[in-house]
Amino acid sequence: MVLESLFNPFAVKRKPWEMFVAGVLYSLIGLFLAYISFRDYAGLLLVFIIVMAAIPLVYTAIKNEEEIDMHVKGEWKILKEHSKVLIFLMYFFIGVVIGLTLAYVFLPSSMVTEIFSIQSQAMVDVQGNVQGGITLFGLFQGIFVNNMKVLLFCLVFSFLFGAGAIFILTWNASVVAVAIGNMIKTNLATVASEVGSVNMFNYLSIGTFSFMRFMFHGLVEIAAYFIAGIAGSIISIAVIKHNIQEESVLYDSVNLILLSVGVLFVAALMEVYITPVFFGW
Q1: How many domains does the chain have?
Q2: Residue ranges making up the domain that contains 193
Q3: pLDDT digits (tens, 9 = 90+) for 11-55
């Protein structure tokens, strides 16, 4: 009860940057507890610990979204209200990515291998699945189909468990952190071999480049998953409260799902056709 009590779920919507702090804090504490308790399964356990700490905040915030659908009139006003919880969730995701990336970069290599072995394998599997197409369009198709599967999981998990999508997205945050951390380590090793040493400027420049390489399109992609998660959670809470027959709830949920698919389509286009122009493959 201590971790979740550090942040007021009603205040963080007005100060969403606090969720960034929560994301970093929860990820580092979760990593430490997972490593000292069940080292062989630390990569998966740290995700569960982060999720357990975050669910009270996330569920309280999303529960309020269903009430907004019932009382706020006008689709634009409703979407504007939903954008607040979306920003709240995005800050949390970035915080988890930053926290786990720092751990990946600065912890001893042997410890990193033990903790993040599952995420490393997942990263390799994803790359193998989406790179089946030789052409750019084939690559786009592979990425979009793979991302649609994740979006569907977010929708189903959030419908069945209320705030269940937070598990899928925290897992994705841990995989992204490994990808960013691996790029940082690889580039630092290259600089060290060429120059002989690395300094703080190297860490900052390489870290920023690596983060933007994945987050340039990644933040758009994650926003799509969160939008779908909000839609699923609104339906879930409406079913529990017997408000599912309300037209405003269903109409808003369908609009959110369609919006999430559109945003995901844009994210896939960015990943294939725009990100490589600025950051390379």
Answers
A1: 1
A2: 4-279
A3: 666 677 888 998 999 999 999 999 998 888 899 999 999 998 888
